[in-house]
Amino acid sequence: MKVSKGTDYALHAMAYLVSQNGKRDKLPVQELAGKLDVSSTYLSKILARLVKQKYIVATSGAKGGYSLPADWEDISVYDIIVAIDGELTLFEDSFNHGDECKIQRLMMEVEADMIEGFKKKSVEELI
User: Fold this and answer.
1) Is residue 105 part of a domain?
2) What PANTHER family does this protein's entry cite (predicted)?
3) Distance between CA atoms of 117 and 120, rounded to whole angstroms?
4) Which pLDDT tens digits describe the chain residue by residue (127 residues)?
5) Residue 36 belongs to what domain range?
6) N or C terminus: which one in the chain shows less Cβ crowding within 10 Å?
7) Residue 99, in any domain of the structure
């Protein structure tokens, strides 16, 4: 499975926020971008999607930044992937044979297993 660069950044940002949980109140986007060695402008756009889904909290102002919500332990890796890339399918059956196509059934079964695996992995497991 190939995830987008945005999802990669989001997962790494979440991992850093989790690793700093309890040590720091809020992390400025510039600090996060510096730790990840990425553009703060692009990272801001990615973080805005996570804020919209309530997977992180944004606080504006001079001492503002990003932090984890109270229920952050309930956030799965799959939640982050969907927040950034949406629900994507990995396989398209070009021949559209329907349910009798063994190839399509196999691919869909494996994809379902992978999705279930991501759903079972908490963001806490990223660190």
Assistant:
1) no
2) RRF2 FAMILY PROTEIN, WINGED HELIX-TURN-HELIX TRANSCRIPTIONAL REGULATOR, RRF2 FAMILY
3) 5
4) 678 999 999 999 999 999 998 787 899 999 999 999 999 999 999 999 999 999 999 999 888 999 999 999 999 999 999 999 998 777 777 777 777 888 888 888 999 999 999 999 999 999 8
5) 5-87+122-126
6) N
7) no
Tokens 């994507």 label which residue? Answer: 88
| DSSP code for 125 | G
3-state secondary structure of 66: strand
Tell me the CA distances in angstroms from 43 to 37, 56, 67, 91, one per residue in order.
Answer: 10, 13, 14, 29
Tell me the CATH number at 29.
1.10.10.10
CB atoms within 10 A of CB 42: 13
- Count of domains forming the chain: 1
Question: Which of 9, 21, 31 lies closest to 71 in space, CA to CA?
Answer: 21
Residue reference for tokens 């997977």: 55
* DSSP, residue by residue, 1-12: ----HHHHHHHH
For residue 22, give both structure tokens.
């309890």
